Every structure is written in C-alpha cells, then in structure tokens.
Amino acid sequence: MIDTSGRWWKGSDPGDIAEYLKLLIQQDAAETPHKYRSVLCACGGEVFNVRFDRSEGFSERRCTACGSTVHMLDSAESLKDARPKKWRCQGCRGTQCNLGVWFSMVDADTVRWVYIGSRCTQCGTLGCYVDWKVMYGPSRDLLDAV
Q: Is residue 43 one of the residues assigned to a domain?
C-alpha cells in the first residue's frame, strides 16, 4: 500500500512500484500504461544499485546479491554516449532499490515508451528515475530485457 501523506510517496513492498508508475503515467494524457514487469536478477535477487543517464535513455542495474550487472532494455545502444550517474533516493539518499518497468505500447509488437521506477529499500520512497521513447519497431523483445 502506498503512503501519500509525506513529501515523497512511499511503498511498503516492491509491488508498489507498479501502482505508483501507473498513476504517474496516467497523468500524461499522451501515454497509457499497457505492460508491467518487476525486475528480478537471474539469481532471484530484487535489490539493486543503479546507474542511469536520463538524457540518453540509459539504465544499468547491479544486483546486490550476486554482483551481476545488466544494461536494462536497450540501454547498451546508448552506452557510448551516456554519462551515467549513481541513483540515490530522493528521500534518504540511500543507494539500494527495487525496480519495475511499465511499457506503453503502440501495438502488440511495438513499445512506444518505457518508464523505470524504483523503491528505496531503506525508506520506501517511490520514484521514476528515467523514461524514454522507443524509436523503432518491432520492439516487443524489450518486455523481456528488464
């Protein structure tokens, strides 16, 4: 359940990212959230350190359980131009979070926009630290590249 009483919305578990992002996206009349994916590492871990570049549409996650690093979605294509910075919670400045991704679709095979959300594992603060438009299709493979 999301707590909206303070300056930052807070979630009590990783599943709250989906609800938070959906509400955020629905405020933008041009986009509709269609598909959601929780982010889990291949090892089963769900806590990550993140580096991102908002202007380049880049996000990289490192699992705190096993240390594996993944360029999320199509971020590898932006790596050479990206100037990533470390994600830090807006509420407590923590550095570990849970992640989730909402996709806005053009049709069944084409993603139009991606929104990556976070929940700080220290204080529960929810956020959307990066989003970007997907400029090609078909791009359904992004649904499995979180």
A: yes
Kindly tell me if the per-residue pLDDT of 29 is higher than 70. no
Distances in whole angstroms, Cα of residue 12 to Cα of each of 61, 91, 121, 126 = 21, 14, 9, 10
Contacts 24+ apart (CB under 8 A), 75-80: 78/53
Number of domains in the chain: 1
Domain of residue 100 covers 8-137
Is the pTM above the cut of 0.85?
yes
Residue 64 falls inside a structural domain: yes
Residue 98 CB coordination number (10 Å)? 23
pLDDT bin (cut points 50, 70, 90) of residue 33 is confident
What pLDDT does residue 53 have? Answer: 97
